[in-house]
Fold DedA family protein.
Amino acid sequence: MKLSRLNKQRSVLALFAFGEGLILPLPLELMLAPLCRLYPKHAWGFAWVATVFTSLGGLVAYGAAWFAAEQWVWPLVERWGYESALNEMLELVRSYGPWVLAVTGLTPLPFKLGTLACGLSGVGLIPVLLAALVSRVSRYLLVAWIATKSGQLPWGGRYFGWFVLGLFLCVMLLFL
């Protein structure tokens, strides 16, 4: 039973991480930290799932910006009012290259804008992938470590995965 619940929560985490790397405006730590607190023996696995799937989501955003900027990216950016933020990120990427993505992956700056800017400015795939992985591994392993050292959730978290999935779907409906 516990293994089945863990697998469901890993799946929900993977879905949330992919969405966060691609388009979701909520930080992944909202799900990762409580999961790591609830299952401290699996914290490193959760951190790796978060790293892989948020990086994959970022690569999809990069690909969309690279191949379909006019059809998909700019209309959505304009609709959500992120034009000036993306233009600022584009200037940074043009000046500093994929290092900007490495920094956005570690800070509260939107990782999505960094991947979009890298795709729009033509930064190569390998540097983008390396910058995304290095920053995301560092961030999520640190979150997992802090969460396991700070104690357990006061409640069992029995429906936590369903709650996050519902929240994810509601946010997606708001933004699409």
